[in-house]
Amino acid sequence: MALLLTFKRWLSRGADLVLDPLRPDWEHSKPQKRMEGFRKLIDRDVLARVAKTARHRDVREAAVNKLDDQNHLADVAKNARNAHVRVIAVEKLVIESALVEISENDRDARVRDIAARQLANQAIAAVRRLTEQSALAKILKNESRSFVRIAAMENLTNQALLAKIARSDADSLLREAAVEKLADQALLAKIARSDADPFVRLSAVSRLRDKTMLEKIVRNDSDPFVREAALENITDQSVIIEIAEGDLDSFVRLSAADKLNDQDLAQSIIMEAVKTPAHSNLRLLLIERLTEPEMIEEIAENGSEAPGIRLAAANRLSELRMAAKSGADVRDGEIGCGPRSPQLVDSERTQTSCAI
Known about the structure:
mainly alpha
């Protein structure tokens, strides 16, 4: 087999020695020679022919990259033997009729997909240039492609049309895009309560300022992300405590804990989440938020706990003790008294140092 391959290579080299003088320079068997020949090409018809039919990949790709005429690019995109060359041509092509033909008929799926993407990008770019509200309204009414309608939303400012889309469009992505531009708080409240899609409700809630409505949503919405978004703009501590203690989703409870004035309650909620089996990375992060040594010791000394969790708790406990010790050193140096945890610092010593 090895002998046969060697013979074939020898035969090929022999053929090249005979044929190279008869070939165009850009078809030379030696890469340096053929690229030198290619650089002399300037005729677009020749460049298109080279891109479509040249034997060597480097020359084919160099030729299609050198072409800038749309008609020649369309010819190469439709007729080049090599699919990769057709891809390069399609990516430079803007003639819509040619792109449509290629997207439907090319024998290579990748070429068809790239042609379809080019068509989509061109449609989106054209719609994004529009600012006339009546033209945008026609597109939103008559266009069937969702991505074009979403592009039309970008420059839409007509609040009446935005309200209509937000209330009743069948496409949830369009409703969400409309909600993000709505100014009508009453309509936002209605959508936040009743839209079937949680992403649309989430968008409405993020723009809603009615505290009473937000409290209803944080108590009653079925989606935890929507409840968490409603919680963002709630300041009533009684409501926050209710959510922190009672929400069915641990992430919502933790978000509520972050807003609590009662830090003892906040710590107990974080501790509850740490004890609840969940993703280990989340539990590791939550341990870093604990400040009560007794709680952290409970985790570190729990023999049934995962080793990584126990180690994280031990490290956290060590950090807090070192911080407490550092605070004592500062006081001993009479630099002053900063805030410190009563669980970490002996109260009598603290009072004495601060009195000094």
